[in-house]
Amino acid sequence: MLQHTASGGPLSQLVETATGPVGLVAIFIYSFLIAFALPGVSEIVLAAPLDLGLSQTMRLAVIILVSGVGKAAGSVFAFHIGQEAKESGPVTRALRRSRFDVVEWSEKKVVQLAKKYGYGGLALALCVPTFPDTLSIYAFSVLEEDYYRFAVATFVGSVGRLLVTLGLIEVVTFF
Predict the structure, then answer these.
(1) What whole-number distance in Å separates Cα of residue 46 and Cα of residue 63?
(2) What's the confidence (pLDDT) of residue 55?
(3) What is the pLDDT of residue 79?
(4) How buried is residue 7: exposed, middle or buried, by Cβ count under 10 Å (0-12/13-18/19+)?
(5) Contact, 74 vs 32, CB < 8 A?
(6) pTM assigned to the model
(7) If you compute the radius of gyration of the chain from its CA atoms, what whole number of angstroms results?
(8) pLDDT digit string (tens) for 36-58?
(9) Exposure pattern of 141-159 as b/e (b: 16+ CB <10 Å)?
(10) 21-55: burial string, b at 16+ Cβ within 10 Å, e else
(11) Higher pLDDT pick, 19 / 113
(12) DSSP states of 25-42 as a string?
């Protein structure tokens, strides 16, 4: 089973101890918030000890589905913020002047993915376990304009990330 060692604050502790239908709500809210506001890793949802009367496989499937929908919804919210920021010249200028040039980083990394692979590139980038994806979501949101494709890409990437994480856990526990 997934062991989480870093403290992610009270919300991640809620997810780690969540059970029943209330636990699903906690997973959704956590996944929504992590897409646009919270630092941390989304994989912690896999550690939720939900007791829904389901098999382990079905329990994980429900967690992955709820988390994917929550992260997609949060990503669409971030996408909207990115669309608003794109219209604001002062926001872009402030980002360029900041100590860590978010715009330059996004142009080098995320723009390359977006140009080469489009929304599939975003989904692939979001499949990388433990990598904070909030910056990628915001950077991509400034570049693109299709809310529906963005939501689908973030859902696929979020589900992919949790499946990759489960696969890595299986490999590690096998050896």
Answers:
(1) 7
(2) 93
(3) 83
(4) exposed
(5) yes
(6) 0.77
(7) 17
(8) 887 678 898 998 888 888 999 99
(9) bbbbeeeeebbebbbbbbb
(10) eebbebbbebbbbbbbebebbbbbbbbbebeeeee
(11) 19
(12) HHHHHHHHHHHHT--S-G
